[in-house]
Design a protein that fits this description.
Blueprint (H helix, E strand, L loop, with lengths): L2 E6 L9 H16 L4 E7 L13 E7 L4 H14 L5 H6 L2 H14 L3 E5 L14 E7 L2 H8 L19 H6 L3 H25 L2 E4 L2 H10 L5 E3 L16 E8 L5 H21 L4 E5 L5 H4 L1 H4 L3 E5 L4 H6 L1 E6 L9 H8 L4 E3 L16 E2 L3 H13 L1 H18 L2 H11 L4
Helix pairs in contact: 1-16, 5-7, 9-14
């Protein structure tokens, strides 16, 4: 019986954010083509209560411990600042005790494949392991951070969703924009070097974006890189049901820097143009953990509704006239864009939001980095029911051809040597 061990920097369940969604889709895909494959997980625990929601597809979860403060400081001083070997996030995750625990687990369960999720867990490679190692990059963080530098004024904190893990005095210390820029530049440079080193240490490499996988393969001399994005089933024959004609929607975890920057930019630069053309329109921001600067948008801009988390995200997206993804930085394929297209909801996004998608502008979706154009596309899609329906059909067609579950199945078959 084949065994696959996933080593993850947080639990891959429940399905409550984009990263967990794609990890669980990977797991379910592996189980689908061979239910006898045993999938195990060794994870740093983001919330203890999530352990009770372990899906049946994962046979067991081994809890991994973060390094203690003294070890973090040692890692930072030695490997980050002195040797310039590890990025900050790698030093913050590496524990020698945890490394021994993983080594013992591998000796005990004898997996055929180990999938490492994101470069911050790359140092946990096990010496003497005779199976195949797969590094799941997600996307190139070095590129994401370098792009983030250009829009630092929209980001309250570079700590994003992990801000609450740090003492308040640390959060205040790095609230300075000049210091944040310095940290991002430093981390981006270290990651750029480290991502390439990691590429040579693993047998196979996975990205969410096929485009990014191809480009990275060329950088490190044609190593085995595969792009495996989130996949969706679409019913091309089903006509979109009735929706709220005055509702524009954005969905994302609202303490993540690129999502925060997107809605702040949109409300400042684009939303006023849209409202002048149609005062009845509303902009709904859906997603958990909205930070203060996001919550303040309701009082600052007319028609903006910070909804927070909802019970049924799919229904909330489908109920909207237009899905906007005004992303100003980021890397890889944006799952939220593919998801909206799969539901038959017209999408207006930026070049960053459309990156990695083989689309025809003005046919599958609207893509523009010019604020006036972006606004006009929204206005057109809310004004014309015929145009809205056309984009609904064309968007689903794109997802059907480019992001089918069969395509993802084939790629995992290749990775695990079953094709």
């Amino acid at each position: 019986m084949m065994k696959v061990l996933f080593i993850t920097n947080k639990l891959p369940f429940p399905d409550n954010d984009g990263r967990k969604n794609i990890l669980m889709q990977y797991v379910r895909t592996i189980k689908k083509f061979d239910n006898n494959v045993e999938v195990l997980n060794a994870a740093f625990i983001d919330k203890e209560e999530y352990l009770e929601k372990k899906p049946n597809e994962i046979s067991s979860v081994t809890k991994l411990d973060q390094p203690k403060i003294i070890e973090k400081l040692f890692n930072l001083l030695m490997y980050t600042f002195l040797l310039r070997k590890w990025p900050l996030q790698v030093s913050m995750y590496y524990s020698r005790k945890t490394h021994r625990k993983i080594s013992n687990l591998v000796k005990e369960v004898k997996p055929d494949f180990i999938v490492y999720d994101m470069v911050r867990v790359a140092p946990y490679l096990v010496k003497g392991f005779s199976g195949q190692t797969i590094m799941n990059y997600d996307d190139l963080l070095s590129l994401r951070y370098s792009r983030q530098l250009e829009h630092i004024h929209y980001i309250p904190t570079i700590l994003g969703g992990i801000a609450s893990y740090f003492p308040m005095y640390i959060q205040k210390l790095i609230s300075s924009k000049s210091l944040q820029k310095s940290i991002l530049k430093f981390e981006s440079r270290l990651l750029n070097k480290y991502e390439k080193q990691v590429g040579w240490s693993f047998d196979k490499l996975v990205f969410t974006s096929p485009k990014e996988a191809k480009e990275f393969s060329e950088i490190i001399n044609d190593r085995a890189c595969l792009g495996i994005p989130m996949a969706y089933d679409t019913d091309k024959t089903k006509i979109r049901s009735k929706y709220q004609e005055n509702q524009i929607v954005f969905v994302g975890k609202m303490d993540i820097p690129h999502n925060v920057a997107a809605v702040l930019y949109f409300c400042e630069k684009i939303w006023p143009i849209v409202k002048r053309a149609n005062s009845s329109l509303e902009f709904h921001i859906i997603g958990k953990n909205p930070i203060k600067s996001v919550l303040e948008l309701e009082n600052k801009y007319e028609g903006v509704k910070v909804v927070g988390p909802v019970a049924d995200i799919e229904e909330s997206i489908k109920n909207s006239a237009v899905f906007v993804a005004p992303l100003v930085f980021g890397t890889g394929i944006k799952t939220k864009v593919i998801e909206a297209l799969s539901y038959g909801v017209p999408v207006v996004t930026t070049s960053i939001g459309a990156e990695g998608i083989d689309f025809k502008n003005g046919h599958h979706m609207y893509v523009s980095d010019i604020e006036g154009e972006f606004a006009n596309h929204i206005i057109s899609l809310t004004k014309s029911e015929k145009l809205n329906e056309s984009f609904s059909i064309n968007g689903k067609e794109l997802v059907h051809h480019e992001f089918s579950k069969q395509s993802m199945n084939n790629k995992w078959l290749t990775l695990l040597g079953k094709s």
